[in-house]
């Protein structure tokens, strides 16, 4: 069995894994690291999903890397462009040379005596590897790549047509002129509808309840002006900062004044839908904006598909799926050749790896998250978790800054391990991802929790979180020294010497 040793192992070669690799090279240049990726390519989400129109639902100016600006003018981009950007970034900084593909971490076991993690890895499906490392960065995202969230759809097994989950979209699927029903109203459904409507005029989005869909321009006068009058390096920084602030201000205002937010979004939708279109029930959500994540429609493409008569939205509950249609409880019958079940993702942490500390299995769902990164009572490991109300990458980059600063601090002090300890035994749990989306609620028994304590709070505002990542104290961390490890190694060496002498005698 092959054995490898590193200072840091990054698990996942998606956007957060590439970001982590860059920060390690930038801030910890003397340390040896590798990136393990279970799949056979860079990209994570953007390489996995292949459904029509797969794109970001955050602007690329903030979703992209802060150290390599997104220079295309379109704020929202489809997966091929995002993948190209990620590959070019990894190649430019030599991060791709640190990647090992088809390497799945099955188990991660911490030893307090050795102050090391031992990772059991399956490489190329049938080879076993053991990897020793001081630190593990879990850049695996938050959902299960193999198993989507299954929805209870009455009679779905009766359907004689094709049933597809967007997570496993057949690349050779011919849906031209087919009658398609998309079940769901989240970002995936909102993305698929206008793109399928280009090939067939018979697309229906069937939703149990409506969502907020905001039309977003791909570019605007302010961005164009900044690019014209300023050097590119300054212009792209200002554009990025502008999008950070716009996201924060809109989220804050919408939460503070939900009725105003409802009216604003409704007014925009009415202006983009056909004249005299009835907003209720299809575009009148029962919840306030940002109780669930807002869906983005680049240049209003979702509304355009409805306006041009190529798509429709139907709100209702499914009574039964028949061999050729979906029957709703109000008697409506929706004929279908293809049913797309865009019903959400199954949540997963640490890529499904089994984690243990000194032989004791760790139930991650029972843990608190310290400084948006580490888990209580779990040494030298962190989860890269982003934002739900702005770009995911922003949160992951602040975590990378924090962990690199912590490791530098530990090296300066001669510490071998850092373990978060909950000082306040009465600390209350808070949601790590503060959304009421169906898939988030369904995964409530999977995710760890934020807490009411000062250092355990959920993410708030990116610029504040970044300041904390670069400046905050290391309170409630318990450190183990390198000297203790050396003493253990010396003791082990002495025992081995005695054993050798006895055998020789």
From TrEMBL:
Keywords: FAD, Flavoprotein, Monooxygenase, NADP, Oxidoreductase. Its cofactor is FAD. InterPro entries: FAD-binding_MO, FAD/NAD-bd_sf, Flavin_mOase-like. It comes from the Eukaryota. Pfam families: FMO-like. One of its GO terms (molecular function) is NADP binding. Transmembrane segments: none annotated. This is FAD-containing monooxygenase EthA.
């Amino acid at each position: 069995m092959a054995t490898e040793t590193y200072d840091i192992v990054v698990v996942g070669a998606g956007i957060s894994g590439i970001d982590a690799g860059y920060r390690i090279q930038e801030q910890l240049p003397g340390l040896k690291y590798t990136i393990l990726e279970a799949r056979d390519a860079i990209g994570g989400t953007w390489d996995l999903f292949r459904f029509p129109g797969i794109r970001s639902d955050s602007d690329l100016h903030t979703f992209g890397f802060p150290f390599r600006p997104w220079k295309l003018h379109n704020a929202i981009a489809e997966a091929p462009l995002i993948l190209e950007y990620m590959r070019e970034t990894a190649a430019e900084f030599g991060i791709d040379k640190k990647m090992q593909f088809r390497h799945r971490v099955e188990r991660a076991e911490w030893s307090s005596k050795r102050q090391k993690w031992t990772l059991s890895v399956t490489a190329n499906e049938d080879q076993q590897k053991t990897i020793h490392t001081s630190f593990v960065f879990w850049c695996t995202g938050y959902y299960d790549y193999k198993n989507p969230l299954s929805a209870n759809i009455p009679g779905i097994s009766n359907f004689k047509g094709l049933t597809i989950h967007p997570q496993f979209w057949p690349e050779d699927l011919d849906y031209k002129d087919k009658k398609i029903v998309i079940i769901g109203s989240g970002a995936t459904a909102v993305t698929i509808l206008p793109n399928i409507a280009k090939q067939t005029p018979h697309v229906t989005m069937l939703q149990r309840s409506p969502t907020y869909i905001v039309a977003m321009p791909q570019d605007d006068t302010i961005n164009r002006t900044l690019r014209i009058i300023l050097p590119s390096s300054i212009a792209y920084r200002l554009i990025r900062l502008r999008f950070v602030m716009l996201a924060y201000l809109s989220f804050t205002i919408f939460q503070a004044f939900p009725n105003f937010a409802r009216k604003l979004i409704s007014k925009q939708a009415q202006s983009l839908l056909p004249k005299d279109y009835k907003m209720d029930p299809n575009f009148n959500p029962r919840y306030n904006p940002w109780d669930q994540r807002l869906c983005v429609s680049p240049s209003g493409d979702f509304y355009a598909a409805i306006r041009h008569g190529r798509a429709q939205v139907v709100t209702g509950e499914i009574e039964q799926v028949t061999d050729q249609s979906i029957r709703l409880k109000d008697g409506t019958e929706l004929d279908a050749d293809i049913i797309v079940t865009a019903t959400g993702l199954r949540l997963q942490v640490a890529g499904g790896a089994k984690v243990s500390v000194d032989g004791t299995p760790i139930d991650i769902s029972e843990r608190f998250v310290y400084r948006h990164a580490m888990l209580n009572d779990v040494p030298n490991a962190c989860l890269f978790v982003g934002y739900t109300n702005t770009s995911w990458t922003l949160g992951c980059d602040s975590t990378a800054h924090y962990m690199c600063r912590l490791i530098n601090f530990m090296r300066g002090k001669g510490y071998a391990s850092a373990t978060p300890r909950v000082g306040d035994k009465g600390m209350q749990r808070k949601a790590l991802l503060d959304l009421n989306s169906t898939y988030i609620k369904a995964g409530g028994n999977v995710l760890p929790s934020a807490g009411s304590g000062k250092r355990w709070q959920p993410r708030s505002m990116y610029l504040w979180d970044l300041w904390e990542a670069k400046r905050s104290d290391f309170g409630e961390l318990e450190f183990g020294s390198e000297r203790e490890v050396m003493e253990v190694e010396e003791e082990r060496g002495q025992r081995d010497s005695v054993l050798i002498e006895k055998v020789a005698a």
